[in-house]
Amino acid sequence: MGRSSRRGAKPHAAQPALDRFWGPVLDSPSPALLCVGQPHFSAFPSGEALFPPVPIAVKPRAAEPDDAPDSAESQVSLHDLYRMGKHYVSFWDAVTMTRIAALLEAKSKRYRIRSELATSLADLRDGPAVLVGAFNNDWTLRLTGPLRFSFLNPQPHIYAIQDQQNSSQTWMVDTRIPYMKQSDDYAVISRVRDATTDRVIVAVGGVAYWGTIAAGEFLTDPKYMDEVAKTAPPGWERKNMQIVIGTSVIAGNCGPPRVLATYFW
Question: Which of 249, 248, 250, 246 is nearest to 258 (CA)?
Fold first, then answer.
């Protein structure tokens, strides 16, 4: 990750830690892409599940003359499109996306917003990207899957973050526990130059939505990154990095984020 090239930018050591974290995104001449996750619960009329595990059966309509002959998607009506969730995002992911967009706006960084389903690999290769969401954002799962801290679904109803260098270290959420009795959630913040896209990727995702909210707060409030910088290795602003955070959940509301683990390379 290169050194700052913004006009009038302060030397790295003099910059706030939060600016140093976002530096690789802010310094890129290309607009940033904000890619927000979407519900995964639909199926095409062919019966092929797009986003398991809860497919919704969609009845095919009669083919029109201008329909592509073998395209299942061409037979999806606007009504079906709404049922398939292609227009929807989580409210909590939208809050996180808004916080990050406000930060980029304050730094005079151009950006564009796309939903996960509307984002292609070509879009991700156009410039730096910020991925919001984890289990509802396939791009997050794909691009962070090979990293040390990654998301997994080891059993039905169990969603987790695992340390791939220490298989005994796992942060889990059991979705069978009643909503108001959940006590903790977890998230991973990753900033890497991705080998697939050759662009800087910032991924912000929680196991459940409380984790995503806490991660969004972490990445937009300077005090949290200041604490990380105190123990980070020299030159951390130019390194790939991951931060695992936790947040306490009380009566359906999340508390402030706390750092559980960090990794720089």
Answer: 246
